[in-house]
Amino acid sequence: MSRTFPELAGVRAAIGGRRAILDGEIVAVGSDGRPSFTRLQRRWPQQRRPSAELIREVPTRFLAFDALAIDGVDITGEPYGRRREILGEVMVVDTSPTMTVPRHWVDVSPADMLDVCAANAMEGIVAKHLDSPYRPGRSALWVKTMVRATAELAIVGHIATHAAGGSVGTLLVAAYDEAGDLRLVGQVGTGMSQRERRRLFKLLDPIEVPESPLRNPHTAPGVRWVEPRYVGEIAFREYTPGRLLRHPSYKGLRDVAVADTRVPTPA
């Protein structure tokens, strides 16, 4: 880990050289101050030590969410509220370039927090019981809720399943860019019930075309291109030009003209 992210050796100085086991996340922060998963991918995985230029271009930071042990003392049984206090006490540098303890709120509703996240293009929130002990893995005491953007995108192809009678496995979705070209932006395989998969197949099968309607070439095994006639609402986590939507999910067909679809705003 220190080989891939050598700058994070500064975390030790941020906690005064104390021995600690912390729970957190490594993020790459953009010029707007927001973490970017796409930027982080430029740093991970690395088979060799990153260059000084890459470290300058894509700096990383450790966000510490929780403390498990301090100076050899196990504190996982302490309430979360107390562990947060201890985490704050361990930090000896308020403005460390390599480590941050994100703020937490106890008097704001989850709905309001999600609104703030959406307004600032953040990924979501984690709600934790203040009296909860630390438990690895999933727990009802800690609930993660993601903010997801949506876009209305043209269905330009699909990959069928082997189900009898025909069923859609994956949808290929596209939209028009500023130059007026229809470009692929995602492959969507979740969010569809079995009934909806069969319905989509019946809609798309009669309008299959021999060639891709896309401006940007794309190949995938088993793709059946279709005339861009239907528009679906797609929820997703993030979009970066030149890549596909991150974690897309189908929400349903929409009565929108294909000509009105637009490539999503980049993250």
From TrEMBL:
Which InterPro entries does this entry report, sorted A to Z? ATP-dep_DNA_ligase, DNA_ligase_ATP-dep_C, DNA_ligase_ATP-dep_cent, NA-bd_OB-fold
> Which keywords label this protein?
Ligase
EC numbers listed for it are 6.5.1.1
Q: Which Pfam families match?
A: DNA_ligase_A_C, DNA_ligase_A_M
- Every copy of the ATP-dependent DNA ligase family profile domain together lies at 53-177
Which molecular function term from Gene Ontology is one that the record holds? DNA ligase (ATP) activity
Q: Name one GO biological process term.
A: DNA recombination
SUPFAM superfamilies per the UniProt record, alphabetical: DNA ligase/mRNA capping enzyme, catalytic domain (SSF56091), Nucleic acid-binding proteins (SSF50249)
Catalysed reaction(s) here are: ATP + (deoxyribonucleotide)n-3'-hydroxyl + 5'-phospho-(deoxyribonucleotide)m = (deoxyribonucleotide)n+m + AMP + diphosphate
In which family does this protein belong, per the annotation? Belongs to the ATP-dependent DNA ligase family.
Q: What is this protein called?
A: DNA ligase (ATP)
Q: Which organism is it from?
A: Mycolicibacterium tokaiense
